[in-house]
Design goal:
Layout: E1 3-5, H1 24-35, E2 45-47, H2 54-57, H3 63-71, H4 97-116, E3 122-125, H5 146-156, E4 161-165, H6 172-177, E5 184-191, E6 215-220, H7 226-244, E7 248-252, H8 270-282, E8 287-290, H9 297-311, H10 322-329, H11 349-365
Helix pairs in contact: 1-9, 1-10, 4-5, 7-11, 8-9
Length: about 375
Amino acid sequence: MNCLVDPRSFLRFDFGAYHPFKTYRLGLAYALIDAYGLAEEGATCTLLPRMATDAELQAFHLPAYLEILRLADSGMFVPNLFAHNLGTGDNPVFPGVYEWAASVAGASIDCAKAVLEGRAPIAFNLAGGLHHAMPAHAAGFCHINDVALAVAALVLAGKRVAYLDIDAHHGDGVQHAFYKTDRVLTISVHQDGHTIFPGTGFVGEIGLEAGRGYAVNVPLAPGARDDVFERVFDEVVFPLLDRYGPDVLVTQLGADALLGDRVAALGMSLSCFERYVTRLASLDLPWVALGGGGYDVGNVTRAWTLAWARMNGVALPDEIPTAWQTQAATFGVVVPSLRGPALDEPSPVRVLAALDNTLASLKEHVFPLVPRA
C-alpha cells in the first residue's frame, strides 16, 4: 500500500497575498485526489506531517541558520535575517515559518523511512520538493531543503539513490549536497539558467571527486515542448537510470515546466507529465516522490493527481468531479478537464538545436563516467 502525506495541516501557513507560492494548492490537489477516490482509508497509507528534529535538520543545514529561522517563527524581524537570505521577497518570514519548513522536511524524511522500512513501495509528499535551500541560507521560496534531507536519510541507510528533478528551476541545493559522491545520481531537467532562477545547472556541472559524472544537468531553452522532454527522457534520464541501477528513486515533480506556468517558460503538456510518471512507476523501484514548484494552481493540482493515480496503477478519466470544480472555483481555479488539450506543436528550431548540443555533450562527457551497475 502506497503512502500519501495529508497536506491539509499546511494550509494555515501563508507566504503572503502577493507571493506566487500558494499553499492552498496543496489542499486543492489533495481534494482532487480524494474526489477521484484515491485517498480513501484502506486503499492508502496516510502520513501526517511532523516537525523534523534538530539532528535530522543538521544532516544538511548549519545550526546557526536553523537558530535564526527558529527565531523568525514569530513572523517578526530578527537580527541577521538578511545574512541568511530571509525576510526577502522570495523567502519571507511569516508566522510559523520554522514550523512550516521543519514539518515539510519531517514529512519527506518520513516518506523515506516508509520506503526504507518496507511499509510502502511508494511514498508521496505533495508539499515537499523544496530543492533550493542551502546549508546556511534560504533560496527560491525554500527555507529548508527537505529533498536533501530525505536523500541523506536514504544514503545513511546504505542506499544508492537516483534523484530526478523536472522542476523548471535547477535543483541546485540537492546538487550541492551530493556533488562529490557517487552514492547519489542527480539528474535535473530545467529551463536554462541563463533565463531563469537560480542561474545554475549548466551542462558542464557534472560533479567533483568521487561524484564526477554523477551530477547531470539538462538545461532547456525557453519554448521547449513535449518533443524535447520526450527526447530527454528517452536519451538521458532512463538510459542513465539503467546504467546506475539505484536502490531507491527520489523524484521532484515540480509542475512549473508545464505550459502556462506564471513563472517559467517551458511547454510540457499534462499528458507528457503523466507519461513520465507512468514510466517511472514501471521501473518498480522503491520511490520517494515529492512535489515542488508550480505557479498555475490548476496545472499543479492536476499534475499531482495524475501522478498519484499512476503511482497506484490507475488511469483516470478526463472528466473532473463537479464537487471539486465548485471548490476550486472559490480560489479562482477553473480547468476544463484533467489533462487539458493535446499539445502537438513542435518546439522551435532554436530550442531543438540547443538540445542537440546539450545531448551531445552529455553523451561525450557524462555517460562514460557512469559505469553500468
